[in-house]
Amino acid sequence: MNKKERKAWKKLKGDNEYIAFLVENLNSEILQKRVAHELFTYASRAIFYKILFVSGYCACLILPVITSVLQYNEARYSRIITIILMGCITVVTGLMNGLKFREKWKHYRRYCEKMKQEIFYCEEQIGKYKDELEPEKILAEEIEEMVTAEGNDWEKIKISLGKQFQKNERMTSENAGRSVK
């Protein structure tokens, strides 16, 4: 492999370039657009949630260290800054746990990689695409099944979060009733 080819392959490391590379061999323009749209959506959301997770994780590592250093500092505003930083730590930790950035990142990345795999199998006519006259029709069905399954997964997550919220509310009201008595 020459230098020019290596450079071209390195370009495919990013999702956008790789998505374009994957869909360019599909014959149907509608299927190309649909697959590219879904792949880009899942890839960009995965990147977004990864950035949020890594940022929050770094903040949860760095802020306590800064807070610890400031506690022993005799500077005029160090106590106020320490209290503010402790509040920030609490907020960031709550957001990380409550909004589930890591789980969302993994969720979107899993569907993105699953779609890439199906496209690869279709183009190489592997597995269920082997000996098919119109493998792209099967690919279209598979992609739509994945999109539907992904939507159903989010509905399950919403329902479970709603049940958890109701359970927490119930426990809070029960505890409030006990403390009044």
Give the mean pLDDT: 84
Q: What Rg, in angstroms, do the CA atoms define?
A: 24 Å
Distance from N terminus to C terminus (CA atoms, Å) equals 79 Å
> What is the number of independent domains?
1
Number of helices: 6
SSE pattern, N- to C-terminal: HHHHHH
Helix content estimate: over 70%
Please give the largest β-sheet: none
Low-confidence stretches: none
Pairing-aware structural class of the strands and helices? mainly alpha
* β-strand number: 0
How much of the sequence lies in strands comes to under 5%
Overall geometry comes to: elongated
Short synopsis of the structure:
The protein has 181 residues and is an all-alpha fold. It contains 6 helices and no strands.
Please outline the helices and strands.
Elements: H1 3-11, H2 15-23, H3 29-71, H4 78-99, H5 101-124, H6 135-180
Helix pairs in contact: 2-3, 3-4, 3-5, 5-6
